[in-house]
Please model this.
Amino acid sequence: MKYIDGFREPDAALFLRRRIEEHAEALAADGRTVRLMEVCGSHTMAVGRFGIREMLPPQVELISGPGCPVCVTGTGYVDAAIELAARDVTIATFGDMLRVPGSRSTLARARSEGARVEVCYSPEGALELARREPDRQVVFLAIGFETTVAPGVSLVRTAAREGLGNLSLLTAFKLVPPALEALIADPELSIDGFLCPAHVSAIIGAEAYRPVVERHGLPCVIASFEPLDILLGIDRLLELLVARRAELVNQYRRVVRPEGNRRAQELIAAWLEPVDADWRGLGSIPRSGLGLREEHASWDAARRFGITIGPGESNPHCRCGDVLRGKIRPPECALFGRSCVPARPIGACMVSAEGTCAAYYKYARTA
Amino acid sequence: MKLVAITGEESGTAELEGARYQVNLSLVDGAQVGEYVIVHAGFAIERLDEQEAEARLALFEQMARAVRGEAGPRP
Ligand code: SF4
Model:
């Protein structure tokens, strides 16, 4: 594709590195250090893959936040999915969910023990399963951030149109802006600025971060996940921080519009409403998730099958919670790279390629 | 991904590095064949503004040239 190489031009990276170093010198002259957080699984992966964290001067710390959708999904949700699988329904899910540990088991293990767990690349795969076996109930594991919400909901819209009564959603959708608010409120974190996600922002629009900027005085820069775009985003954040200015900057204007994707927003609003949601590592955050509206409750798998999503129990030694809040780096977890590796993950952060522990393991094991 | 065909009311075919994918177009307004779309979980979620993309590439190119010591104003 013609666009990719231009976004990875090494000389431009060198240019941006030098400029980032200049900002860092200005910060140093002021006796300041800054902490930036990226909140996007694709950023986490690219930061690891291209060694961006290692490129940054000592005055600038880049931490990864709760940007990986699988990682923030609670243990109790995995337990509920496993319980459903045991009730002779077909579970349709993105592949990453298979290995996410529940309290006692995983969906992968449930599958090896005979449960029907089908991996879909797109929610449309769940639709296909439901069409193919009309007499069998299919439950789609509807997790993810704003970007995945609209595709997930369009599934039930299509099912409703087609009169497919054998499909439902087990929802654990998450919203990014309330999570940012929760992170800002955490006194131990002291974040100075956010590198805002790419695809999520395409849906919610750049203006969605305005309250973070204006109410909390933190600069927010929306950036794509190409390495040069990430460097440019960091450069801009630092420029704002040096000048002590809190601004909202959309550096991904080629995709993100101020108002976002209205079509997706309308679809979401028609089917879903804000609910309190449980985040792995962050706990329950008010109105930080989306659940089916009362009038669409018949599509809710938890209701259809009388299941409650409890808190679940995680391995007490797994520090995913601290990793997701950017409090520790993965190597600070005693299990990292020892009993917890991508092939045998103990916590959710080691499962998905977008998980911070997995990204560290793969690209920066020595860091 | 580049949209190479509209195959139904809400579906199309998109291409990335020679591979073709079925994409759902219900979330974007009036995407045209030949346009680039951003695809997430099999759904086109937004259209790429090619002018903005070109402007960004030009900026990176200018930065690269500045490093190589060629003429050109500092971006
Ligand atoms: S290394 Fe494994 S056990 Fe430790 S925090 Fe990460 S996922 Fe949890």
User: Anything to note?
Assistant: Residues 198 and 224 of chain A are 5 Å apart (CA to CA). The interface with chain B takes residues 1, 3, 6-7, 9-12, 14-16, 94, 121-125, 144, 147-148, 150-151, 154, 199, 202-203, 228-229, 253-257, 261, 263-264, 267 of chain A (CB under 8 Å). The longest helix of chain A spans residues 10-29.
